[in-house]
Structures
1.
Amino acid sequence: MADRLAIENVLATWALGYDDRRPELMERCFTADATMTLHIGDETMGPYVGRDEVMRHFTDHHEIQTDQRRHVVTNVTLELDERTEARTTSVLTLLVVDGGEVRVQATGVYRDHFVEADGRWCIRERVLRLDAHY
Amino acid sequence: MADRQAIENMLASWAYGYDEREPERMRAAFTDDAVMTMEIGLGDDKELMGPYDGIDEVMGLFTDHHGEQRDQRRHVTTNLVVLDETDDSASIVSYLSLFVTSAGEVRLQATGVYRDQVVRIGDEWRIRERLLQLDVHY
């Protein structure tokens, strides 16, 4: 149970880091060798290889997006492969506030491969399948 | 280390207490010396409410709103992050998605972020300081 709680904290920390535009919070969620791939319909973005590339994907989007995003993360499933590895799925409901209006922009599923090192869980591989464009 | 499960339970219990109009349940989520502040809106157009100082003022905010609101609210609380923690205190953040049902229609009224300082009193966790930043009006 402690592992699950720690992993849930990482998932929510990434969302807070993105939405609050705090790169240091996002960065701590990934291993140095992390990869990330996005699928949106038939379109694929990535894989982004290495934490620096993954982080650049996020910060580039911050430059473009002038709205306020809320990455609501729920429905976490977890399979512990070993004591130091876990695979999770979680559901994203992406809410966007713009011009005083809030809308549901997209839904999607994160499939993450977590590893634990030095008492901290981090994402080594993230695949996000979005049901609609973000 | 802070008890994440107990904190999640307390956050959900406050939301249940508000939505089901059970003042005692809301009260139990706060310390007697609790302080609550609300910011509404984004950027330069933020409206400030509070600070409401002490449990009586904080509860007054909630029950005054109950007097005005005829709709059914659901404070959906997600994305708990425990940032800094000791055995007896923690700095936490959680997300609010506020759904409102009125005249048979449900709408997503607002989103926001709770930034709380919580403390452990005996076996219970309570909010000592709450900042609610709403992205739009509630």
2.
Amino acid sequence: MTETPDLASPAARPARIEWRAATVADVIVETPHAKTLVLNVPGWPGHAAGQHVDVRLTSEDGYQAQRSYSIASEPTRATLSITIERLDDGEVSPYLTDALGIGDKLELRGPIGGYFVWDPTLVGPLFLVAGGSGIVPLMAMLRTRAAASPVSRAAAPATLLYSSRGWEDVIYREEFAGLASDPGVRVIHTLTRSQPPGWTGFSRRIDADMLTEVAPPASTHPHIYVCGPTPLVESVAQTFVELGYEPSRVKTERFGPTGP
Amino acid sequence: MADEPIISRGFRGRRAPTTRESRIPPGQYEERGFPVLSAGPTPHTPLAKWDFKLRGVDGATVTWTWDEFNALPHETVTRDIHCVTKWSKLDTVWDGVSVDTLIAEAAKQGVATAPFIVAFSDGGYTTNLPLEDVTGGKAWVAFSYDGKPLHPEHGGPARLLVPHLYFWKSAKWVRGIQFTAHNEPGFWEVNGYHDRGDPWREQRYTGDP
């Protein structure tokens, strides 16, 4: 792997990300299709907003399945949260959302990923675009920002543009009102399939006009994170490039919490 | 850490059929679709501006235009592919130029190999590989998938194809290969992922055996 002799000594070799036993401390019903598992993970080494964990399930006959899930919680919280969208034909997500209850255990390892991450030392506007359960790693960023110092918060005004099918599909719906009480946070929803009576917000897929209207100008060099289904991410990332944003500032993630 | 796996009562899982199960590495599942994973926007380089370079340690370089590249001997290969995000896809069909062919052509023009390579791509992506992982019929620069031109989302116009390693090593939008005397970790390799990435040894992340 490496030819550098120093790294051959155990002390210098990077530590393996070990499997850990996690215990379900709480289950939060977010939408008809998504639940949050709040986990106690003894020895958890900490993480950055945007990182994910691998979850491993073992059946009684020894068969194992693994999936990756984005971390939803901020690093300063004592528990670790993952939010899982139930995919009806999935192998793992129906078990996690239907079968697990408080006190049950599962195995996970992490944190994983060093690119799609944000922390409060990154000065500059933060622009987050989520589609569906792609909100999860972006919510970790907003929660991390909310837990940061007033100086850090002021240095990183944040805008979230969140595309959902309908109001009942909006994950973390109640929490957004609290987050948006900070004048440095704007939360903008678009509901693409159905809208509640009296809805005055966006009701179409994210397009160039919408991004132009809500995104910080390219001249402010925002940090942009896009997470959601592939067609949304492809389209939004492409539109940012066409609008003159620096491609290297547009970080995308297409898998996150939605593995089948 | 968990020494003994925790049994998830009532979890049955979904094994692949026995005939295919032996082809799915540990921790992977069989995917019938073709998921897309990229760290940023998809580059769209016009073919008129596309070229492919092989560059030696000393800077000596051979460059092929799109037409020249397509005129090189190429072959159709059917391989299983394995993404570190857990999906594997069996019997994928690609058309491309073997890296062995590129190296042989480059040698005629004075470009020598070295013990390691860094593949580089439009958009700034890089990935590192030992020479032995891309020679001996193990790697291609593929420009066609399933009989059709490679779609940009999947790395078109051309991507590296190194199917025996996790698929992040098969760099999308590849534009060239730099030979290096030493191992120089690439984009994911400095962002928490394993240096080599053998799916059968489950070398997913930094520190995995």
